[in-house]
Input
Amino acid sequence: MSEPFLELKNLKISFPTDDGVVRSVDGLSFSLERGKTLGIVGESGSGKSVTSLGILGLHNRRNADVSGEIWLDGDELIRAEPEKVRKLRGNKMAMIFQDPLSSMHPYYSVGHQIVEAYRVHHNVSKKVARKQAVDMLGKVGIPQPDRRVDDYPHQFSGGMRQRAMIAMALVNDPQLLIADEPTTALDVTVQAQILDLMHKLQEEFNSALIIITHDLGVVAELADDVLVMYGGKCIEFGAAATIFERPEHPYTWGLLGSMPRIDRPNLDRLVPIPGLPPSLINLPSGCAFHPRCAYEPRTAGLGRTVPPELVAAGGSKHLVRCHVPTEERQRIWLEEVKPKLEAQ
Amino acid sequence: MIRKTRVLVAATAVLALGLTAACSGNDDSTTPDTSSAKPEFNGAVTKVYSPSDKKGGTIRMANAGDWDNLDPGEAYYGYEWDFLRLYGRGLLTFKSQPGDAGNELTPDLAEGMGVPTDGGKTWTYKIRPGVKFEDGTVIKSADVKYAVLRSTDKATFPNGPAYFEQFLNLPAGYKGPYKSKGVNTDSAITTPDDTTIVFHLKTAFGGFDYFAMMPQTVPVPEAKDTGANYKQHVVSSGPYMFDQNNLGKNFTLKRNPNWDSATDPIRKALPDAFDVSLNVNADDIDNRLLSGDLDIDVVGTGVQPAALGRVVGDPTIKAGADNPNIARLWYTSINETVAPFDNIECRKAVEYAADRTGYQTAFGGPLAGGDIASTLLPPIIPGYQKFDLYPAGADNTGDVAKAKEALAACGQPNGFETNIAYRAERPKEKATAESLQQSLARVGIKLTLKPYPQGDYFSAYAGNPPFVKANKLGLAQNGWGADWNDGFGFLSQIVDSRVIRETGGSSNTSVRDPEVDKMLDAAVAETDTAKREAMWGPIDKKVMEDAFILPGVYAKTLLIRPKKLTNIYVSQAYNMYDYASLGVA
Amino acid sequence: MITYIIRRLFAAVVLLFIVSAATFAIFYLVPRLVGATPETLATRYVGRAATPETVGIIAHKLGFYDPIWVQYGHWIKAIFVGADYDYGSGIEHCPAPCFGYSFITHQPVWPDLLTRIPVTLSLAVGAAVLWVFFGVATGVLSALRRGSLLDRAAMSFSLAGVSLPIFFTGMVALLVFSYKLRWTASGGTYTPFTENPGEWFYALLLPWCVLAVQFSAQYARLTRAGMLETLGEDYIRTARAKGLRERDVNVRHGLRAALTPLLTIFGLDFGLLIGGAVLTEAVFSLPGLGKYAYDAITNNDLPKVLGVTMMAAFFVVVANLVVDLLYAVVDPRVRLG
Output
């Protein structure tokens, strides 16, 4: 349990385009152990999906520049032979996508697609693979799996479809599962069921789980650790409890403030973060967040000129990328931000 | 985007160059002339090219359209008559010889020429004994009588010539042997014995031998006659019989085992078989003739414009071509029913002002168009007399001065306006109309072009007198080829005023001279061939004096000589190669 | 599904009636609008020496004196019940379906049509196999190597193929391949398959290639566009994420989805081709339905024109129906009701 199952070291993914180089991921590092869940949070364009695709090796090397290191259970993936990575995909590491309707092939039955996923990595007959598929569908909670295995994706309801997608991802017992916005396309009532399912399966298989989302509520449920991304970089990292109780980055504060919560008394005032996500081609100088940061004036101009480093804050596991000094940040949190959040 | 365009342009250029290189290669390299003679231009027009008696082989022919009619009772095109001699023997036929001899009649099924009696109202023929049909039955005079009678049933055979029903003394209301079964027709044709047949006419007709030449006298066995379906298998009396017949697609002829060369002094019957394809692409036919993959374009009206350029431009190809004169005149009718053409001087103005060279060029020049005409009868018609009543100057571009004089004489010194009709589908007629438009404009005659569809041209437009008057069609493009080469065949339909009908449909659109009608009648009655021939010239001259017709060109065709055949020569009677004499090298 | 088919068949029959009525109207009404009479109409079908009497007889025989709906009625009746035809020396019964007799050759139209269908079918099927294979293959390769030299060359070639008319490419092909190089058969040499398969193949080789060049160009473009679109779909990403080989991703997932719109287009193209490969058959002198139509139209032979039009319409309608049914089979999301 001590060696991290997945480790990213300074991952950089950029896309050269006619308008300039899009730096989607700009030096990301983290590690994850089996049995643990990491939640990656950020706005659209922060680089979270690009990261997950990068781990699976799904970027077209002709269009994308990928550098850094990705270690999966002792294998480095970026410099590995594509064929080697392919054999790991869907096998040792698997991914669940956001929209199960568009993510499954409309012309093949769900059973066929699961069978396909199984037979890519196991040399067995269709009959055997089919049995596996039916089993898996049962495990993810789909009733009458032997009948539904021949249905087409469009014949399932949203929640059932996502379960089927999960079944397809898990049929090969992957040790790393990445879920990209797994509940965003679903009804709220169904969301909870899916999250529950994922938690249960993770325990059963002892897999490492990465959940990518913009929804802090989802992260609060499942994640052990939380990584906040902004402008292609990690701007705050820590245990889930730390991030929710003692967040130290202005952006994280903004995220928490803009999160609707049922247990708060006053529901009619959400505070959005002003401004728009930055252009990944022309990132702002200095700290990427500074144009939208209310506390930028307290950085004595550094925020505008010098990109901040990711440094420890509070506990050693808690990392923050910000020019505002730690004590100042903690003070701001306790005195200014937290009361407002609770008053909401 | 620019890169892509450049690649496309380059690729197309390469493609075009490659194709041009492939196409412009010397045709000599493909199929050398396997016959013994040396190719020369017009080598088969006046003499036999590559004579031979070698038997065997198959002659390959193609028709750009459908064969209009295989049934001898209905066939009416020159090529059909030429080809029919292979599977049918009429009473008489034309001599199978090159040059002027080809215009002379000779006995075929009959033993000798027709014997006229009763001043030319009765004609008797004796049939050769022992001539058999393909099934071995002997041909009797009754079979010839039956053939002629069935051809008068116009409900079943509407397409054929109408001379017999016009001239024979048939019983009133006779509808042919199918509908008028059992009716006694001895008033028209009698068969005193199995080898004699006698025709009785309503009025004397000196040229009846020409009627006897028509395929309608090819015998038809009554027992095997299937009316409109007879063409599916015509019973042969000639050297070849039908082997396979896929109507609309192709047919083949094979030797007729019951043809006896002892009874047939005319035909050599050299090849073993004929293979005729129908509905073949016309340009493809020309390409195959040039490459030697095909022997004969059976319709025989000459090459398409696409191939014409190649023939004219390449001396090697030209040496393999023949350019005979044919018995066809392209001309312009001048209608006296449209003012001011009711005044003869105005008509003469047109005769003088027309640019004859321009007319010839519009029709394709001296090679593909023909020779400049000054008479109605083309030179190859027996009875042709050369004269030029309206000389068009040294270079044949028209005599403007004389034209202006004529205009003054008819009271239109500054010219006038009128319309010229032509067949819309014929680019040559359009070009001619334009040429006349230009040349007549020199003297102030302004023409407006009026195209009409060729299908109804004579029935509804230029040949329909009320329409002509209403639409002021002072001039109309026209053309005429005779059914056979004699004065009657050529002139009667275009200068006899009595063929003009108010309901339209005649080829004569402008000639109305009672004098001419009388002269025609006299010639028609004359039974002495030489005397009759001498009477056509004066008729021609009289019509020209009346200035009802502006003659254009005596037509010529450009034929590609077959590369693998022998005994090739142009038949003056049919205006194309003589199909009955061909052999395979 | 069954009710759907029945409804479609019924609609098809109605459509065929409408097509026949329209064709009839064009041939009969339009000339009359410009002043044609039964006699002037009949002059097209008699010889050049016909007397007015003959013209009248023929006008009568061909039914031109009847009002147009009576003529149409006779024609429809003949299709269902048959008709009798007087061929002079006897009367022939033309069994149903009887499409009348040619105004010019006086031969029945229906047997003619039947002999021509195999020719056009041979041409269409052979060319279709070629163009689908080459078109789709080229399109897939182009899409996968988008922007490469192969892609640009293929698309430029396809532009040329679509732009050059077949009477040009056909004549040039004949000239170069048949008459100069002597690799392929000359025009007009069709032999039925039942007579001699070898000759049949040899005669059709060049027409197949020329026709295929034209169509494969279009199909390459369509396949390329379809592939590019499909390859951007989410399920492609999922397929890759499952670890599928790239080839399987492109073919089983990408091409499979890209081909369905192509199916519709192919069905229509094939259906139209059966009724109307006019230019190809004219250039190569193949005795098929297209050439039949061409000859019939140039000769104003109405029964033939009607017959071939109905046949072409029939094939188009059937092709449409088959394509719609196939689409439901191929794409499970489509339910016909």
Remarks:
- The mean pLDDT of chain A is 88.
- Residues 241 and 325 of chain A are 22 Å apart (CA to CA).
